[in-house]
Each structure stands twice: as C-alpha cells, then as structure tokens.
Amino acid sequence: MSERRSLIVTKMVYIIFSNKRHQYISGIFSSLVQAEEYVSRYDEASKESSNIIPVELVYPFYLTEDEKGLGAALF
User: Considering the domain boundaries, does residue 1 fall inside one?
Assistant: First the structure.
C-alpha cells in the first residue's frame, strides 16, 4: 500500500534584508498586510534595504540558500 502525503498550498510573504555584506530573512508572515506593518516600524535606512516578497509554497518545504540566493525546496 502506498503512503499518501497531504500537501498544503499556502501563500506566504517574507522580508529579505540586505546590507553591503549580508542578506537574511527578516520575517515570514501569512499576509502582505502583516509584512508591510512590520516593515513600517523600521527606520528609513532599513526600509531601503528591505524587500517584501510574496510567494506561494506547498508544505512541507525547506528554505534553502546557495550562491544564487534564498529559495524553497519541497520536502
């Protein structure tokens, strides 16, 4: 008997913060409104270094990083 996995499709929003030397995920949110509200609390210099990126993912997944940057891999 084959095993069936339940996959959940969800929309998520993550915030990428970049400075001259590093790039990292600053937050992961379930809605664009939540992400924008979070970034609104940043100082102006930090706002300019942040990108809000909406993505649609299938759970489960892994966040990955390589020389191309951040990404997601399915489980």
Answer: no
**Six-digit token pair at 3?**
């095993």
pLDDT tens across 17-55, in order?
Answer: 887 777 777 888 888 899 899 889 988 988 888 888 887
The residue to which tokens 């992961």 are assigned: 28
Residue 36 domain flag: yes
Evaluate whether residue 35 is within a structural domain: yes
Answer yes or no: is 41 within a domain: yes
Does the model's pTM come out above 0.85?
no
How many other C-beta atoms are found inside a 10 Å radius of the C-beta of residue 26? Answer: 19
Q: What string of DSSP letters covers 42-62?
A: S-HHHHHTEEEEEEEEEESEE
